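tool_call: predict_structure(chain=1)
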Amino acid sequence: MVRPSSPEVSPGLWRREAGTVVRRAGALPERAPTGGAVVAEFRIVPAPTEWTRHAHRLHELVWVRGGTLTSRVGDRVFTVFEGHGLWMPAGVVHAGRATEGARFHSAFFAPDRTPIAFGEPKAIAMTPLLVSLLTHLSRTDLAEAARLRAEAVVFDVIEPSEHQLALRLPGDPRIDAIAEALLDDPADGRSLEEWARWLGTSERTVTRAFRRTTGLSFAQWRQMLRVHRALTLLSDGFDVMSVSERLGYAQPSSFIAAFRRVMGTTPGAFSGAFSGTADAVSGDVRNSVSGGENTGLSA
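tool_result:
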């Protein structure tokens, strides 16, 4: 059997937009100033930006305002949206993408000085207190005692999010072409029977492969993938009807129901909450520790 050729997609992410800037990770701080454990910084991403596969010597916590971040870690795709962050342990290889105009925040934690430990990538609840503390720590004029006090509170309040929203990719050569095609075009509405015919295999084989590798049925997995894509589109300002059409739903009500099943809220409520916080960034501070284009921001 000749397997269908797969569309060219960004590494485990969505179809690359025109004008996307592709970067490698730049130089990162090795440790915080004045003996602390945390270096925090932020910047605005002027264009859709991807970072190629890389790893850090430090733990990294990233979060965004006014956009979304998608990160590929092995066989998982994480989508980071308003109010949530992603913890990336030191040494874990990952790639990522941020949407145009996103305010990209990151904090790096020295492993030998950080008492918390998440052994794998983890969604983090970016509470107002945690965000305020990390913004405070982005200052470079803090006295050592003040920095250590703030860091101690960070270690106390940082917690995993209730939404551990990760899409697991199959990683099975029998069905990988389906996953790649749907990453390229989530609106592809072919039925399970049609996909099986396209691959020259049986529906039963496809069904079993999806269940074994992802823990979900094919229909559930495609629904999850579409919700991940919807988060990015909604944060980019598309209305619910437009997102529904882009994702291949015949009726907006079907999209709303699917989104609620995964997220526990409607896409309209998500968009409203997103819009209400997107402009609340007056306290953001660019950390001069890393400076300019050499921030090496990554996902």
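agent: The mean pLDDT is 83. Proceeding to next step.
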